[in-house]
Amino acid sequence: MRTQRKSFTKKSSQANRGMEFEGYIMQANARYAIRGIASIDKIATPVKVIKLAATGPKKGRIIDGYFEEKSTVDFSGIARGRSIYFDAKETENKTSFPLDNIGDHQYEALREKHVHQAISFLLIRFKTHHEIFILLFEDLDKWWKEAMQGGRKSIPYQFFKENCEVCKAGRNVAIDYMAALDKATMNV
Q1: What's the rounded Cα separation, in Å, for the pair 20 and 43?
Q2: Beta carbons within 8 Å of 62's beta carbon, 6+ residues apart
Q3: How far is CA 99 from CA 103, 138, 153, in A?
Q4: With the CA atoms of 62, 24, 26 and 61 taken in that order, what torsion angle do they form, in degrees rounded to the nearest 10?
């Protein structure tokens, strides 16, 4: 098996992209665990360490390395007896969510879990609108297949407004995505 060598060192502008959003999700996950609502974990991306800082305040931190393999999705867990598998994405695009924000391997990971009855979805943050939506795999799949057949390569913002549950603050967390997920999956 060939290992993909992707540099671990990133520019600071890229390093924190999505970290705020992910932080809110991890805060919600911690709250869900405490309240017995769900057990959701962050999936770590395997890193091959080349060099660690030997001295100073950064001692023991990774200085150089690469990702051994592509990550699948950001989070997995269980709630109400169902497996949950999802990724968090964000866009600054005002009118649509570009499908090229999703890697083929991420789509396949979501599809595989969906086939085995997991609740697979994306949490999509439209930064300019200050809104976060749940996009269930069933909807992603339709748009993805259309794009693969030469159709539209993005999902219109209006689709999210009309067809997806919005995630709001609740239960003492900034993004109560489980409440939105409950609504989104009532008929699934």
Answers
A1: 17
A2: 8, 47, 49, 51, 52
A3: 8, 15, 6
A4: 10
DSSP helix/strand/coil, 123 = strand
Tokens of 126: 């439209």
Integer Cα distance of 77 and 43 in angstroms: 10
pTM (predicted TM-score): 0.80
The CA distances from residue 117 to 7, 65, 114, in Å, are: 35, 36, 5
| Lookup result for tokens 């671990």 | 8
Q: Provide mean pLDDT across the span 150-178.
A: 96
Greater confidence, 55 or 178? 178
Stretch 142-152: mean pLDDT: 97
Q: Collect all residues with Cβ–Cβ distance below 8 Å to 70 and sequence separation of at least 6.
A: 4, 103, 105
User: Which residues is 131 bridged to in the sheet?
Assistant: 126
